[in-house]
Amino acid sequence: MPTDLKKGARITGDDRSTLARDLKSRYDGGASIRSLAAETGRSYGFVHRILSESEVSLRSRGGATRGRRAS
Length: 71
Description:
By secondary structure, the chain is mainly alpha-helical. It has three helices and no strands.
């Protein structure tokens, strides 16, 4: 991940592509959008938009679901 990105700075070109690849890899590895946003100092919406632009299959909300109860 680019290390010289300041909080709130516009990210374009190669830096944006590099960040998108890194976020995609980490999200596919199980990281949440909120955790990625916190780690990068970017907003939830920014991270969500970058992942969407990278054609990532976004997970549904709520984390792991529970199985049916045994009767």
